[in-house]
User: What shape does this take?
Amino acid sequence: MTLFFVLSCSLVLCVFILGYVYLIFPLVMACIAQWVTSGEQGCTASEQDEHSNNLDLPGVTLIIPAYNEASVIEQKLLNALALDYPGDRLEIIVGCDGGSDRTVSIAKSVANPRIRILDFPERRGKAAVINDAVSQSKGDVLLLCDANVMFSADALRRLVATLKRDGVGAVSGDVQLDSAGSSFGAGESAYYRLERMIHRGESAIASMMGVDGGMYVLHKKLFHPIPADTILDDFTISMGVIRSGHRILYEPRAVATENATEYAKTEYQRRVRLSSGSAQVVLRGFFPSLSNPIDFWLFGSHKFLRWVSPFLIVIMVISACLLMLQDDEFGFVVFGRLVIIAVLMLTGIASAVAMSRRLRKTPCVAIPFYFLMSQVAIGQGILKGIRGHWNPRWERTTRASNAPQQR
Assistant: This one.
């Protein structure tokens, strides 16, 4: 086996995998979603109305983990109280994780018997808050969310209606980002459109690979306490649902809104932290087992291969560079040159966009910038996670409206 052969195979394999992850797989999911009827995706409009009038709605506990959320907690609680759901079946728990601002006092000022405040003096992290809040919850269904995510009035009814389907263990809604105030909104918006397209396809054939932590419901009986140092709490909880033999569905009609991250540096730091959680997930085996081949394939295609894509890009570039030093009779050197040119163009565009906030709002250049920024962040986060640098205590992420992100 010659060096030329190894380099050629390495280059072609990396290009194929990257093309599969970011082009082929999303297109396959989009086609699947189109082929499946709306009735198979979730409840139809008439079924939704029927469920809305159903007196047999389950008791729900809405859990809001909060760390220094004084700027949004009152709005969040008023939003929760305004949900179109029977008041005697909706319990609201605010779990305050040892904050230093007025979150607790503001939450207590929203006087309502349905609201319970759990004031934990020590800051431990979101996973510990969720575990304790669930242990004190009364509802048969858990609704977990972020403090800065605001629900549409009918969101909970729609989530519960879909959750009542046979074999369904959890349902995630459509948390829509308002990227208008973000300095890289065009790239982020394109990313989330891609994600929702994949979610529809996954939900159609098996399970959505992980819920949106901003808004999702699950049967309380399927919740198992997660390790206190867990970073990706929503993903870990959702994988427990799948591994129990239940499905996770995406309900696009259950809508919530959230403001986007304003600055690229802040978004980069956020993605580094989440990516370190991805390494934690893999090292702990919190993913579908081989005994469930469809979900295992979806996990590998949607999650795992994305998490390793920065390293595939590095291998691809090194292989292409070394190939140009080899004698070639089959055109692989030309292919390698094209790869290098493409990478240089992508890097050049991203570098130019990084220095211009105006360019970041133009989709044709903002998307390459967001992609490259994400790849670097994922790579750094994965390496950090492999080394075991797991900090479960989340930091506030300033959003475009100065609302902190809850993660």
